[in-house]
Amino acid sequence: MSVFDVSEIVQALHGVRNEWRDSQNRSREPVSRELPSRESLAQIVEQLKGALFPMRLGPPDLRHESEDFYVGHTLHSALQALLVQARLELSYVARHGASDPSAIDAQALQAVRDFAAQLPAIRRLLDSDVLAAYQGDPAATSVDEVLLCYPGVLALIHHRVAHKLYKLGLPLLARMVTELAHSQTGIDIHPGAQIDAGFFMDHGTGVVIGETAVIGKRVRLYQAVTLGAKRFPTDHDGNPQKGLPRHPIVEDDVVIYAGATILGRVTIGRGATIGGNVWITADVPPGASVTQASLQNARPVP
Q: Which terminus in the chain has less CB density within 10 A, N or C?
């Protein structure tokens, strides 16, 4: 005899599920799983890491002479699995009336093929990020240490992959990929954020980068920096309007120190330096240096 009688709980949960499905206009009897799988995405990302950096993030017994074979085999497996997840996302969108169900297979296949074609460009961007971290951190002893150990680089691997998926019309898969890194590193980068080459997040914990942020080349951030939205324009019903530019533009060669908060569609000009723990909601000119002291001695930033 079971220690726990869960039959009433099972029935109660059944009722709650039906209430939710009715409120969301969903079928009470879904044929199979309707959404992509976090577990599957995690495995796909691990395979992609190995394919991108086989001798450092691949299997420990990999030998150089087997590198290309491993990359090809791993990519084939990862892309086949990604195709399944892409179909699930596109099917979910189609069920909610936002696309043509008959085109799902072709759309998913094309998206995954286009994603695969971008992998060499993703590797080049990541190489620039690793070099930026190595050159920007005096504690770094090698580029290999940076790739293997730095949480900011881990978050960027996920982001570079996720951003391509986001641009290819798979925003749910993209968000799931970035949230895997968020849970591991404490770094929250929306997959829609545009980040150019040579990006370095030193320490990284607590960094938040919003969906419409644009970051130029050779930008360096420290921990707990927020590139966020100041306010959300609403529609006639009071709901936030989606997709509008609302996060900062950070131009090339900017340094933003720990704890700085930059809100709204403002521009931080090329070569500017933003000091720690400042609050900015207005444009900063190129080459400027903004600190708590400079803000206290000037008129308040609107």
A: N
